[in-house]
Amino acid sequence: MAKYKTSTGMGSHHSATMLSDEWLTPPEIIKKLGPFDLDPCSPVDRPWDTAKKHFTIEDNGLLQNWQGFIWCNPPYGRQTKYWLEKLVWHNNGIALIFARTETDMFFRYVWPWATSIFFIDGRLHFYSVKGERSKANSGAPSVLIAYGKEADNRLLNTAIKGKYIKL
Q: What confidence tens digit (pLDDT) does each residue in 131-141 have?
């Protein structure tokens, strides 16, 4: 996920005492779902690659042409919906967001368009750009959202502990 604006509070992708809002997907998630062709919202500095190609805040991944199979761990908060909307139209990738299933964003960009969803068991611990695991969990449950046949197949067959639901 790329750095956009520092925020605080539970549900902003990390603990209430965070110093940065640039947090990375746990590497085991990427290993169990990959490989990916593109991560359109990747940090500038990252301890590991999440895809073959990365767009950072310097590239503004929302304005770029997305190609191939996408990994999207977008900036959490009000910007998340823009990334999901673009992934809806690309229809070939997986997004990782908070499982806030009652929100307008979910009703606009997940429920009518996603192929499947996968609720991750427990709360994730994200990583800093230095590769250090956060001491606190994310503060909210997470969900993987599949758009397209390949993404659905990866969620169906993942070794991640959780619950797969075909939509």
A: 888 887 777 89
